[in-house]
Design a protein that fits this description.
Blueprint: H1 2-25, H2 28-57
Helix pairs in contact: 1-2
Length: 58
């Protein structure tokens, strides 16, 4: 679970960086990377939810 949280944190940082580049400098490639990161975050957060539910049942 710790590894999953680290992956989520890393993906959030990537998203924030790329989203800021798109917003501030109009970098379209960064926007594409930010959208990809948001999809990856969605998957990771679903995994976290499953792992968290399993951990709470123990």
């Amino acid at each position: 679970m710790k590894e999953l949280i680290e992956k989520i944190s890393s993906e959030i940082e990537s998203f924030k960086t790329d989203a800021a580049l798109q917003l501030e400098k109009g970098n379209n490639a960064a926007g594409t990377r930010a959208r990809k990161a948001s999809l990856n975050l969605e998957k990771l957060l679903k995994e976290y939810r499953k792992a968290s539910l399993e951990a709470s049942k123990k």
